Amino acid sequence: MSNPANVKAALRSLEIETPSWAYGNSGTRFKVFAQAGVPRTPQEKIADAAQVHRFTGSAPSVALHIPWDRVDDFTELAKHAHDQGVRLGAINSNVFQDDDYKLGSVTNPDPRVRRKAVRHLLDCVDIMDATGSRDLKLWFSDGINYPGQDDLRDRQDRLAEALREVYDRLGPHQRMLLEYKLFEPAFYATDVPDWGTSYAHCVELGPRATVCIDTGHHAPGTNIEFIVAFLLRAGRLGAFDFNSRFYADDDLMAGAADPFQLFRIMYEIVRADALSSGIAFMLDQCHNIEAKVPAVIRSVLNVQEATAKALLVDRDALRAAQLEGDVLGANAVLMDAYNTDVRPLLAELRTEDGLDPDPVGAYRRSGYGERVVAERVGGQQAGWNA
Ligand SMILES: [Mn+2]
């Protein structure tokens, strides 16, 4: 794969999905700093996402979040996206913002609340039918704060029952992505805390249930590329939510905190020839203090750079060194690729594809940011903080 033409061809096949919520105002539990010109509607979020695709050529779809992006006519919204040059991607469900969900959604001890949560998930599948989306993303905030608060095993039974009902509702070309998270908002026990729990539920459900790895949802020091390798081997890696973390679920730009980790993850993808095998490479991040559209562009570039380096790994040389037990040699092959400056290669690729070699600079020069500041008054919250 070290041949530059092959590397470029592989990079052209890489599609990164950006999240609608990255374009709206967001913040921490302490404060949301509103920015001028942020989108007021789902349509305007899609327009911003289209800018990211326009300048990178690699972000052709945008994920929606329900209810934050609820509209009366999703078929019309899909057409709007198409007119802007992008398409609608995964539907992200939300069963964590209603007062009813204080003690959980699909694992709540109250059957009425569980029914309400499942109803919402089924509504999301209806929306997928209208938008043409393939993927339903499930992340549950469900969990408990204190030992004894609820029965750990009963909650797994309730989770399995809810997942089964939703899985059986999926159309033949639709998939379920089950995301996990170590902790937060629950602190003692989370009902889907890790990839193993997600994987086990997916296996129980069927082949169209797959695991979503959010890179920010692990304990510090977790070897995420091992999880990637394991799930790829098992055929159960459905998606990534890329972002960066320093401490907890920081949701910073992908590749900002640890570009080496992103490279190691993308190497496992390349190793499995899985760059264009249906895995959804999504961003799940928010830009609390930085300008949003250029931050998303930067994140896309970071994923591209990590992927380019992964593609440059001399796999034959690596294999040979591994089989010979050449510890230092094998490590050196990997590090040679990681230490390559791939920016000239990516600039060349963009120029060949009629793009500006500097997407962030080109976006700034386009005047789009200034134009929307003038046009949009009273930008919308991304959704989760007041
Ligand atoms: Mn996520």
From TrEMBL:
Residues 72-249 form the Xylose isomerase-like TIM barrel domain. It comes from the Bacteria. GO terms for molecular function: L-rhamnose isomerase activity; metal ion binding. Pfam families: AP_endonuc_2. Keywords: Isomerase, Manganese, Metal-binding. GO terms for biological process: L-lyxose metabolic process; rhamnose catabolic process. The keyword Metal-binding applies. InterPro entries: L-rhamnose_isomerase, Rhamnose_iso-rel, Xyl_isomerase-like_sf, Xyl_isomerase-like_TIM-brl. Signal peptide: none annotated. NCBIfam families: RhaI_grampos. This is L-rhamnose isomerase / sugar isomerase.
